[in-house]
Amino acid sequence: MVFVGLALVGAGLLVFRYANEIAGQISGYIAPPPEGGDPTGLGTAQFGYLPFIVWGFGFTLIGFGGNTLRMAFMSSVAGGMGGGAMAGGMSPEMLDGYMQQTLAANRGMTGQSAATAAPATKEVVKVKCRNCGSLESEDAAFCRKCGKSL
Question: Model pTM greater than 0.85?
Fold first, then answer.
């Protein structure tokens, strides 16, 4: 699957690189561009919009190749584990367990303990404006909505 992804990315890069040449080859099979010069101002009046279409095809190949490589990576991460079809063969429970293990390992590398990793919850107090009724923080001197003093 990795080879397919790399081949698609390579083909997309080649198509993207040689878009003008490819457009020149296939321009004889389609109607000529409208007369009146280059409508885009990008110097492609010879072939009209055809190089942009070929570029889009090249980008599509690159995207499919990248998606194939991502799927190959995800299936190797899930390698050998049974489960549903989500995330390359991982069930939601397995994916959650994998993410918890990864987060715990990352916390261990940064020197944080599990107890200090979660931010402490701060109580938020809001004050209601007497004029317009909007809620403002308790340390605000003026209302953001109407500008009156709180």
Answer: no
